[in-house]
């Protein structure tokens, strides 16, 4: 972080309190026009002719900022690939880019993302709940990136099979219909364990030295529950190839767990019975009831402090996360906004409501620090072992403990650095 301070401090001095829409410069705003070039990276869907959200926002930004004569250069780099692509050469990377917040640690290490301006910070705090703000907050407590949508998964279900009370309990649902869940996937499986008290890197999910911890008895209890779950004839194991969605489409499954990216396909599959909700609870054989908690994050817009036009880049990043831009993003592409003032815009959209309810009520922040990279593979291996029957009621305690013990080196390695 000390290495980052030199770059971010210089940019902060340049930005001052400026942001999109701020032209007050002591009453003496410059009348000259500054010719600049801005390279912007985003997903192809935001640049397609059928949904040209990004080019539209660029034109609107130009109208609002006549002090700039901008030459735009857009390129396709998805939010999920931004961190990897930017860090290859931050000095040659885009001035403005969209990124998934789990890459924040990578971007900070590469000195490739700037702290937002004071005006942007005020905008974010007005628009977003604390949960979303935390998703773009670095370990130094500063905000990097302007959120524009949440990122998590929730439950889609056939409302002719389950009532509004049924969906509160996974066990009740399994008595009335078939449910699919991707137990072998390390982004989905943890929902059972974080719901039962597993912590990842401390209270704020940002301290590698705190490691990954869980009470042994609770871990065993949950593991035994999952062993029984796999054997339940009304439970269908999903996989990364979309088996759950396919089963929902052919009517052999009544509920799946996915995100807004599946909304269109699920709506086509269920028709008038289309519904979505936040995650349910589950009750173990030991009598403990736990609330499932999905990992959540956000997608945001960042600016590159290495930009030749850092002030304009920061202002445009702020604009892409503005209320106006988020509303257009939802209208044009059904990208669910994080802006609380736009709640009425998607109040009749089950997936949008379910996503925001999940983030607010049944989720836990996915850590963005580098140590999180050590979590995924062991978790996937453990989940696959449960699915394959290698973990059973007899060895559940030993297997769960071995899985958790395997993470102890994360904290010890971090402590030695």
Automatic annotation (TrEMBL):
Example of a GO biological process term: maltose transport
Provenance organism: Bifidobacterium thermophilum RBL67
Protein name: ABC transporter substrate-binding protein
Gene3D superfamilies: Periplasmic binding protein-like II (3.40.190.10)
InterPro entries recorded: SBP
Record-stated family: Belongs to the bacterial solute-binding protein 1 family.
Cellular component annotations (GO), alphabetically ordered: ATP-binding cassette (ABC) transporter complex, substrate-binding subunit-containing
Sorted UniProt keywords: Signal, Transport
Residues making up the signal peptide according to the UniProt record: 1-19
GO MF term list: maltose binding
Source superkingdom: Bacteria
